Amino acid sequence: MSSNTVNAIKNKSQQISFGEVLLNGFLSTIKGMLLGFVTILAFVCSPIWNSAERMKKLTHFILFAFMGLILLWVLFWIGQRPVFTINQIQLQSNNDQNLAHINQALVRSKVVNQLTGNFFSIRLDVTRKIFEELSWVRSASVRRVWPNGLIVTIEEQEPVGMWGSNEGAKLINQYGELFTVNLAEAELYKNLVEFSGPMNSNKEVMDLYQQLNEWFIPFQAKVTSLNLSSRYSWTAKLDNGMTFELGRDLDQKDRSQLKTRLNRFFKVWPDAKEKLPNKIEYVDLRYANGFAIRGASKTESKAKELVLGTVVIEEALQDSGRKKVNRLHQETLETASKNNVNDLQKTKMIDGRKSE
């Protein structure tokens, strides 16, 4: 080989770039991988094609799958027959009582048109939500009845009172939940309690209402109105005509103080009311050691307000002190009469103690 030929070969080899070398290597690798994949696939499939037993099982599998598809189609076709269309809806109450506001006419007008599907395809959770959107329904449960019916168990709202808010009057149930209905229908319920309070305080108001009814059992009275002010101060009116200022309630400590104040009032009241000439209309419990009362006078058109000290009352009663109580009460009435200028007057009877 001549030197010219050798030099030509060397020059040609020097002209190949590094990128071309990488490309050739990549193509060679891809080619090897594809060849290996084909080899593995042929190895896996070859036993099936070469085995009569495996071919038989494969044939059976395909046959059963085809028959299963046909069966599913037949079932689907049967399921679409009119006999399975929902045309019977039975309503019942969860407490075995008659439903007062939910009836078949209401269901036909507001529910039936929203139902989709038949006995097999209807979605029970969606159906339940449709019923719970009705104004007087608190909760509902739905189950199928063969072959074209539904049984719907309904818990109706039971209003305890009216909730006053900026958005208009709403009803409130025993769980403290607000709901909106036609107020004309609510007139069927007598003696609804009047509630009011800040936004989102309805459950808290209902909780105290239920406790107050328990606490007022010894007083033989029930709450007819309960208000929670923006300062979280409670005011309760009873069915005997009395109004109670209970004070603030910001935490559990305040709640226990409300109970303590009421217990103090109940303890003193039986003996104190005998010494009061007129019916009491107002009781203020927002004092550390006593309470204030106000009643309408029979001889005057204005009311008088008296502040009775718990310590004075208790000491007077323990001291065979019926005379002391009478004397203190008489002095209070005389002072109030002198200072009454067509207005409410307050006379304190706390023995050396200051009220809040």
Structure description:
The chain is of the alpha/beta class and 356 residues long. The chain contains 10 helices and 14 strands. Strands 6-5-4-7-8-9-10-11-12-13-14 form an 11-stranded mixed sheet. Strand 8 (223-228) and strand 9 (233-238) form a beta hairpin. The longest helix has 33 residues, at 18-50. It starts with a helix and ends in a 7-residue tail after the last strand. Residues 1-15, 298-329 and 335-356 have low confidence and may be disordered.
Which structural category fits the helices and strands? alpha/beta
How are the strands of the biggest sheet laid out side by side? 6-5-4-7-8-9-10-11-12-13-14
Uncertain runs:
1-15, 298-329, 335-356
What would the principal axes of the Cα set say about the shape? elongated
Radius of gyration: 43 Å
| Portion of residues within helices | 40-55%
Q: Largest sheet, if any?
A: 11 strands, mixed
Separation of the first and last Cα atoms: 124 Å
Approximately what portion of the residues adopt beta-strand conformation? 15-25%
Count of alpha/pi helices: 10
Strand segment count:
14
Mean pLDDT: 74
Q: How do the helices and strands follow one another from N- to C-terminus? A: HHHEHHEEEEEHEHEEEHEEEHHE
